[in-house]
Amino acid sequence: MKKQVFSLIFCFLGILGFSQTMPYQSNNDQAKTEITKVIDAWHKAAGEANFKNYFDLMSKDAVFIGTDATENWQIDEFKAYAKPHFDKGRAWDFTAIERNIYLTDQKGIAWFDELLDTHMGICRGSGVMKYVEDEWKIAHYVLSIEIPNENVNEITSIKKDFDSKMLQQLKTKN
After folding, report:
1. CA distances from residue 14 to 5, 10, 18 in whole angstroms, order as listed
2. d(Cα 174, Cα 171) in Å, to the nearest integer?
3. Strand 58-65, strand 109-118: pairing
4. In the prediction, which pLDDT does 21 show?
5. Average pLDDT, the chain
6. Which of 35, 48, 104, 117 has the greatest CB tally within 10 Å of its CB?
7. Are 138 and 129 in contact (CB under 8 A)?
8. H helices within 48-132, ranges in order?
9. Domains and CATH numbers, the chain
10. pLDDT tens-digit profile of 35-62?
């Protein structure tokens, strides 16, 4: 009888333990699906020049870092930069061709990287998402132009003067 009770308790604890881990996995899958939808909708809003939808998908304290060394914008600065582009009826059109999403053990923070098909060729976007008021928001985004390794010397040469001036400005600023 004791063996049966022990076996029953053991089975119950095993089932309880299994049921505790399953929702976590499906929540991760669900979170990744939701995050994918948000990022895709964000890119779509830019392609359609929908300023409101685009910025509604970003957190109130979001940061956008563009391809130029001077482009490190807090949300209001980025809105000011982006508004004229959106007002023209078409901002930028980025389509993800590959994306990886990562979640922390604590719920509410995720990060991602993606390769994008853009008017600049292949670019890489990377960002941080946070779960705010029951929805995922883009909190930080970095856009980079991909340069093949065999072209790095040529590109470095092209931007040498700009980089030299920029480095001097940054060093005096700090």
Report:
1. 14, 6, 6
2. 5
3. unpaired
4. 33
5. 88
6. 35
7. yes
8. 51-56, 75-87
9. 26-167 (3.10.450.50)
10. 999 999 999 999 999 999 999 999 999 9
